[in-house]
Design brief:
This protein is of the alpha/beta class and 451 residues long. The chain contains eleven helices and twelve strands. Helix 5 links the parallel strand 3 (114-118) and strand 4 (142-147). Helix 4 packs parallel to helix 5 (127-137) and helix 9 packs parallel to helix 10 (331-348).
């Protein structure tokens, strides 16, 4: 397994754990000391299931508002659309049983979504006071107070329970209707589940965002690894070619020149590595690191690095125009760009060919109204060019026309170095006569006039 692939695998974030399907919570607690009232509420919201009794005795009291047996029978005969709900009802006859059931529900991981609380429970605390204690165990439960009369105002209840619980309770007056009970149950249960689903979705989004950040980091590391491999492959090919050339020569001067070329390639390799380190650490190239350099020296060094390849493939190099120009630039980066372009040109021409180089200052007409002086480099090969339908894609990262022989990084890296690092312009086009032409434009260094 190659180094880049290992690096990508090592830094790849773990796959997210599949989330179990959300289980809708239909659990309802009825806190009512009058069995007929509890049965009436149960028969409305869960007519096809049995209420879960608490096997304890309870004080009985008369309630003129209790439902009659005929009322209950009518409720049991309601339409099928109301029977589609899946409410699971638990009945507690007093505050003690209610608190026990809430605690049991929480301990078992099956909390109640809502509860109907009778206000007048005939005990030491009423339903409102009970809810405050319930919220200490389960702060999420929704409550609907059921009462024959209201001896506390809404503001008083709100103040007693706390402002943070103002959206967790509602009330209804006896005698209640079938529709009002069912609607209160549906609304409360729906709100409880919607909030839980939103919480889970927020957690999943947070996890997805974290994985995305990790993925971006992994992709960045992998991209840097591929770029390093691409650039060092080019440089090593130049080094090996000139090393082979040095071994073949008997002339000490020629051997010395070949070794100097190898050292220059080593310096460029070191600069390339340092640049990729900065990219990996998310630091940008500081514009102050650019220095005034002789552009022609960069071209000459790139030509020297590629001379072995040019001779081997019988490629002629022609300097059409070669004005001496000074630009603010990173010397090694420009050499890296030009070498990449020369490599692409040699690949485009099979056994022989020609590469034209032009270096010139832009004329006033060519600058399109810009005041600053600019320098233009044109590198043209005499190959077949690029089909017009894929020409717009050739500078996209990882797009290649070379199949397995290419990485699709050369032109992408060149464009980034010229435009992002040097604030220049990089374009590519088929030459109107033959071949492909790369045009690079860079701001020229202005000489400071002394008064």
């Amino acid at each position: 397994m190659n180094t880049v692939k290992k690096l990508s695998l090592l830094t790849m974030p773990a796959a997210p754990t599949p989330k179990p399907e959300y289980i809708y919570n239909w659990r309802v607690l009825i806190v009512e000391d009058e069995p007929s009232i509890a049965e009436g509420i149960k028969s409305i919201i869960a007519p096809t299931t049995n209420v879960v009794p608490i096997n304890r005795s309870s004080r009985q009291r008369s309630a003129p508002e209790n439902l009659s047996s005929n009322d209950i029978q009518k409720l049991n005969n309601k339409s099928d659309d109301l029977r589609s709900d899946k409410f699971e009802v638990v009945w507690a006859k007093n505050p003690t049983e209610a608190l026990e059931q809430v605690k049991l529900a929480m301990d078992s991981g099956k909390p109640f979504a809502m509860g109907f609380f009778d206000v007048m429970l005939g005990s030491e605390i009423d339903g409102i006071e009970l809810l405050k204690q319930v919220h200490l165990i389960d702060p999420k439960i929704y409550a609907v107070f059921v009462t024959a009369y209201q001896d506390r105002t809404v503001d008083a209840i709100n103040q007693f329970l706390g402002q943070d619980k103002s959206d967790r309770w509602d009330y209804m007056n006896k005698p209640f209707t079938e529709g009002s009970i069912l609607q209160k149950a549906r609304n409360s249960v729906s709100i409880w589940n919607l909030k839980e689903q939103k919480k889970l979705q927020d957690e999943e989004l947070a996890e997805a965002a974290n994985l995305l950040l990790q993925g971006d980091r992994s992709n960045a590391v992998a991209a840097v690894g591929r770029s390093v491999a691409h650039e060092f492959g080019n440089l090593l090919m130049r080094i090996m070619g000139h090393a082979e050339l040095a071994l073949m020569k008997n002339d000490p001067n020629q051997m010395l020149q070949a070794l100097k070329t190898i050292l220059n390639a080593g310096d460029t390799a070191s600069a390339v590595l340092e640049k990729f380190k900065r990219q990996l650490n998310n630091t940008e190239q500081n514009i102050n690191e650019l220095k005034p350099i002789n552009l022609n020296q960069c071209l000459d060094e790139a030509i020297n690095l590629m001379s072995y390849k040019f001779n081997k493939k019988n490629i002629k190099l022609t300097r059409i125009k070669y004005q001496q120009c000074t630009v603010f630039a990173n010397h090694h980066s420009l050499v890296q760009v030009i070498v990449n372009l020369f490599i692409n040109a040699t690949h485009a021409m099979t056994s022989s060919g020609q590469i034209d180089i032009s270096v010139a200052r832009l004329t006033a007409e060519e600058k399109n109204g810009q005041d600053e002086p600019w320098v233009e480099i044109r590198i043209r090969d005499y190959g077949p060019g690029i089909p017009e339908d894929i020409l717009p894609k050739v500078m996209d990262p990882f797009f290649t026309t070379k199949g397995k022989q290419g990485t699709g990084l050369g032109l992408s890296i060149c464009k980034e170095i010229i435009e992002a690092e040097h604030l220049g312009e990089f374009s590519i086009a088929n030459h109107p006569v033959k071949g492909l032409e790369i045009i690079i434009r860079l701001p020229e260094k202005q000489e400071v006039q002394n008064d």
